Amino acid sequence: MAGQRGRDVLLKIANGAGAFVTIAGIRTKSVELSSLQVDGTHAESPNAWRELVAGAGTKTARIRGSGLFKDAASDALLRQHFFAGDVPMLQLVLPDFGTLSGPFQIAELSYGGDHDGEATFTVTLESAGLIDFEAAS
C-alpha cells in the first residue's frame, strides 16, 4: 500500500439535519483506540503467567485534532455542543482504513494564537457510547 496524505483524514460532526459536516481547518488529527485489560490470574495459573479475561475490558476511543477554524458553521457546532455538555455524533474518516462513527463528548476545546499569526484551536473528543466501524471498500 502506498503512503497516504494526512489531510485526507477527516473529522466530521452531525449538523442536526441528518448529515455530517467536516470540521473545517483541522490540520493535525489522531485517534487512539484502547481496551482495558482485566487480570484473571489466580493461584493455579500455569507457571504464574498472567491470564486476561477475554472481552471483559472497557473499550474507548479518543480523537484529538488541532488547526484553524475557517468555517463558522462547524465552529459554532463544536462550541454549542461543548457549552451544552452534549454528546454529538461524530465520524472519523481514515482513507483506505475505514470510518469510525458514534457519540463523543467534547472533553477539551482550546483556542489560541500568536500576535502575528492565525487563531488556532485544539479539540479532544472522548467516546461516550458504541463506536461503529465500517471498513473502507
At a glance:
This protein is 9% helix and 45% strand. It is built from one helix and eight strands; from the N terminus they run ββββαββββ. The radius of gyration is 19 Å and the shape is elongated.
The backbone outline, from C-alpha atoms, is elongated
Low-confidence region ranges: none
DSSP E strands, number: 8
Structural class by sheet pairing and helices: mainly beta
Helix fraction, binned, reads under 10%
How would a crystallographer describe the biggest sheet? 8 strands, antiparallel
* String of helices and strands: EEEEHEEEE
Distance between the termini: 14 Å
Question: What is the count of helical runs?
Answer: 1
Average pLDDT confidence is 88
Strand portion: over 45%
Query: Gyration radius, to the nearest Å?
Result: 19 Å
Can you walk through the features of this model?
The protein is mainly beta and 137 residues long. It contains 1 helix and 8 strands, in the order E-E-E-E-H-E-E-E-E. It has one helix spanning 72-84, and strands at 10-14, 20-22, 26-35, 59-67, 89-94, 98-113, 119-127, 132-135. Strands 1, 2, 3, 4, 5, 6, 7 and 8 form an 8-stranded antiparallel sheet that branches. The longest helix is centred in the middle third of the chain and has 13 residues, at 72-84.
